[in-house]
Structure formats: C-alpha cells, structure tokens
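In the current project phase, our protein records have gained a structure token line. A sample record follows, to show the layout:
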Amino acid sequence: MPSLIHVENLSKDYRLIRKREGVGGGLVDLVRPRHRILRAVDNVSFDIAAGEMVGYIGANGAGKSTTIKMLTGILTPTAGEVSVGGLVPWRDRLQYTRHIGVVFGQRTQLWWDLAVVESFRLLRKIYEVPEAVYAEQMAVFDKLLGIGEFLHQPVRKLSLGQRMRCDLAAALLHRPRILFLDEPTIGLDVVAKESVREFLREIRDLQGVTVILTTHDLNDIEQLCRRVIIIDKGKVHFDGLLEDLRLRLGRRVRLTVDLREDRTREAMQTTTEGLPVNWQPAEGRHHVAEFRRAEISGAEVIKLVVNACPVSDLHLAEPDIEEIVRDIYRAAGKEHA
C-alpha cells in the first residue's frame, strides 16, 4: 500500500545557552554566551498508509510532540524529509493545512466566549467548506458525538468532555485526510473517554481519515491502534503491530491464583519446581506467577497448581501494553548506557 505520510531521517536540534553560576557568571553570559545542542528528534523514519490509525508514544521529553509539530508544519526540521500526500508541511503550509486536522489535548481551537455553532461557522468560512458538506458533516457529528444539544452554548460553559467532542468535530469539519491527536482523552472520565474512542473508530471507517495519536493513556492505544511507534530520547525503538510488540518480549503471561488456605511463596514455587516459572513474593491466599509461553504452556502450569493446591479461583492474562512499553524503555536505556 502506498504511503500517505513519508518521514525519512527527520531530526530537530535546539541551540540552548549553557549558563554559568553566580552573578559574575551571568554577566559573562551576556557578553560571551556558551551554547550546547539538544537533539530532540534523531533520524526518525517511518511510513504511514492512508486509513491507518497509528499510536506514536513515548515518555515526557522523548521527542513525540516535536515530531508532531514538524509533521503539522509548526516547526521546521534541522534535517530530514517529510512528505504528506506530496506536500511538505513547513514549505506548503497554506495548502497543507486544508488537508489536516489537529487536536492538541486541552488547548481548544474554539472561540471561548462564542456559542459552539458560531465557532463552527467561522471555521467553515476559513476552510471554505461548501454549505452542503458543512451540513452533512454537522449531521454526522450530531449522530456520533451528540453535539446538537450544546451547539448554542458558549464554549466556556461546556464540560471538558463536551468541549473535547466539539474540538474533534471542529478538526474534522473540512474533511481532512489526516488527523493529528495529542492527548485527546487527557482529563476525561471513563464514559467520556469511551465516547471519544468510539467516535474515532467510526469516523475512520466512515470517512477513511488517517490518524496519528500520541497519548500517555495506553488504553487508547490498545483500543484504537493496531500499529504503534515507540520513541525514546529522540530515536524510534519500535515500529510495528501491537501484537508483534508483545511477541518481541517473549509473550510473557501472568497467572493469578486465589487459594482456599494460606500458602507461602516457597510452597507455590515447589509446585512448579524445575520449570521457568517465577512466583512473586507473597504470603497468604493470593499468589501471582509469571512465565513465557515459548518456554511452557499455560495449561501445564495450571494443571500443576490445581493438582497441588486447594484453588478457589485463577486467572491467566498477558501483561498490559504499559508494562511492555516500560520494558522497551529499559532496553533502550541499556543501549544508551
């Protein structure tokens, strides 16, 4: 499948002043400032096809927001290439903005004191959206997001969840090919988060929009994205399917066991003695073991435990994506050491 977004060896450097200590040092800095180069993004490359929904994740300071700002044309890179549908974001900015929508967390693009519908009408004129397309989009947003009930309220009177729904609608009003989302569910309650996720799934299927999502809520990634790109210290450390990410770390699984009587960790370890099963330190009736499917099957471990212990309940599960990402960060840290 041809790429809609092509990123090759993208880098961004910031020139920072190295300040000297004390009042005297501050005076010297005014005359002879010292500088150092901070590389926020370091030779990042990837391709994204039309219609993909990709999670772009990393810790604070990893370089993900800087990447997104270059992809949206806000920043000009120090080196590298970006092509989005044949356009270069920072060079073809005016034409390019007609093809993208952006939602940056809690920073609304709506006018604070105007009614929501007035903001939408202004955006329609800015993007020169035909009246028929505008009406069609508003009908879709009302159906999927339920925004009709507060269209005539000032933006400042909306709840955070209502405002996020309106920001998503505003970003998609002109039917962009690409939607950049930076922390779209931050601060939302469970119900509001699920509403946003369901809308993103439906609008992707309905209008084929390509989505790049950055978030610290990894439930967003698990529920929305098949593909994930992990960045740390400006470098890409993983780019592939979420399932492949789990496989890369050996398909580790966790067995949680509840017993009808107390047992020590040592006693539980004895039930799987000689096998690559690690029981976490615990006393009492609740115990947790970890192992890798490539080394031993879950059925075998469960059989041994059930035959040796008075089990009242047990649960077998893979670790969540957050744990897997932490393992990727640890591995990246060792590479940099």
Q: What stands out?
A: The chain has twelve helices and 13 strands.
